[in-house]
Amino acid sequence: MFHRENQFPVCVFYRNSPEGHARTSFAADLHRRLNGDNGRLLVLLVQPPAEAELARRTLGPQALDAQSQRVARLVMDQTALPFESIQVRAVASRDEAGIPDGAIVVNRSLAGRRTPFAVMAVYSETSLECRGNGSLLIPFGAYESGQQAAAIGIPLAKALGKPVIFWHTTLQRPGLTSSVPAEHMREDSVAVMHSIESEADRQGVSFETVVEHAARIPEGIVDFAVRRQVSLIVMARGRRTVCGCHVDQVLTHSAIPVLIARS
Amino acid sequence: MENIATQRGFLQFFKTPRATTWVIALVNLLKVTGKLGAGGLVHSQVLIADGIHNLADLAEGLVIGLVIRVSGKPPTADYPFGRKNVETFTSLGIGVGLLYLALQFIVKSLAGLLSLWPAADVAARSVASFLPAVEQVTTSNATFPWLVAVTVGSFILSMLGSQYEIAIGKRSGHQVLVDAGREMRSDSKIEMVTVFAVVGERVLHGTSIAYLAPVLEHGATLVVALMIMHTGWELFLKAWRVLLQHSIGHDDQIRQLCCGLAGVLAVRDLKTFQIGQLAVCKLDIVTRRGHEAYPHLEAGLRDRLQAYLAENEFPEAEIKVAFHAPERSWCRMAFAIVQEGGARIVAPTLEKATHLAICAWDGAEHDRITIGALPDSLPAQAALLARHHVQTVYVFGDESEQTVDELRKHGIGIEQAQSYLLPVMGLRFEH
What we know:
Low-confidence stretches of chain A: 1-5
Mean pLDDT of chain A: 90
Shape of chain B: elongated
Order of helices and strands of chain A: EHEHHEEEEHEHEHEHE
Distance between the termini of chain B: 83 Å
Helix content of chain B: 55-70%
Number of strands of chain A: 10
Strand order of the largest sheet of chain A: 3-2-1-4-5-10-9-6-7-8
Radius of gyration of chain A: 20 Å
CATH superfamily of the largest domain in chain A: HUPs
CATH superfamily of the largest domain in chain B: Cation efflux protein transmembrane domain
Structural class of chain B: alpha/beta
CATH class of the largest domain in chain A: Alpha Beta
Number of domains of chain A: 2
Low-confidence stretches of chain B: none
Strand content of chain A: 15-25%
Mean pLDDT of chain B: 86
Largest sheet of chain B: 6 strands, mixed
CATH class of the largest domain in chain B: Mainly Alpha
Oligomer: heterodimer
Strand content of chain B: 15-25%
């Protein structure tokens, strides 16, 4: 069967637990929304070489296939995806999973570190719209992380047919009495805002830009996301940050799924 | 400019609850004077009944002014929710008063209807001596236009007054004003019946069916009384429910709104009640998220519920949220494993296993895992599993009939694992 190369292949590391099932359901829903009947949901099983060798000797060479078949059937039963839309692959480690370019990996533990692929951190949500049809939220600051987030967030919003909210928080500029937060923005933040807004315009994605004075950035992002009932927060890790990364703090505070761009 | 400012200030004054009570009191005074005067002049039971009803409204309006002052006091340590319920007590009193009035009018109208059959009237009065005397309506060409003016004017005043009172009550958050406005709206319906009775009586006067005029008069009084009773019962029931902390009646919608928030698994418990126009919601929310997420979840719940309740007659709402982890249902399960050095996989069968991993499962995670060597004989293996209260054993391959039977004797099931990889089966190893 021919499978079209997908813009956003979706992968999930499988685990047989209620949280694992929620992640798998979320990944299947995302795959369906992004790829329709094209392509396959990649279900990954981490199989260290020592375990692989032990399984080959103890269970026989056919055990790997049997395992893949059983997991695929389980995923099919859980998600109602057709059997042929599920590809189960055993990989030696998370780092050597052979994840395709541009893929979104639904996983929580990987969200806490830098990865060469985008990671979707999901909590108890079983689909992108299980709590309603919300927008995508892309917070941005004065540096490149906002643009990196927008680089995946805008085409993803386009593929999902959702609008985007660009969100920024700024400190009060000393001496400026204006009550309009946008007037307190730094020049480099304004430049980032213009670049991501023009990108959204170029791709034909409808957007809204909100500038606020939040006491703390991560809490401000989560509070805004909850208040506006967004479906997904899209962020990227800043290259300079060595401690107190906003992405990690949002992951700790948010119950809304968070997509972290590759870094 | 000063004139405009003065005019605005004057208009603002009429938007205050205090001014509303005085305006409504004036309206009721006009209605009482007109109806009792005209009713007494022509001996109309229906007009007198309605006039007495308005007299009660007048007294009630004056009490409302006092109640609003008390209920408007801010919350204190002794009254953490304020004194809003004093309005509910008043609403309860109004309800009881209206029910009493309605009962009186019902007796009067029934007595009036009974008087049309003299034999039955005499028999009834010999048993029920409390039945009131019946007076016949005596309208004339001279009094009729005044009667119409009084009843129609009263109807218009009630319609306008009720709109005014409800609007100011909702705006200022005084339930007692809203209730009084609703009561006045029902008064206007009563007054329509009165208009009908007065006009009907005059139309029938001097015709061949003039004998039906008293039926019309007393029948209309009965209808008025039943309408008063309906209003009284509604007010009484609503106040009764508030005072006994009945649920506010939106529980299903509140649960649905809560479950629509990301991170909320379920609403374990919901208690709602009302203090004046303040809705109080106590929520027990089940979530798997950690305590860092609680303030955001709470803010989200508060936003949603307050917006919903504001659209449903509760301008103020107090939301109390407690968060809980999902309830755990413990059980034990075991994995037959093959262990070689640091590598472990699920064994094809119990017979081929070298070790046994016994896990405490809490419904979401394997909470504690112990790994021990497996006894040689099948009965010893079954006894070990039974001693640890294991309910299910997982193997990767097909288990022999003999093993299945032996385990079944101890109430232990055996199942095929989807994967031979223990982490994939949900087992996390720290070492």
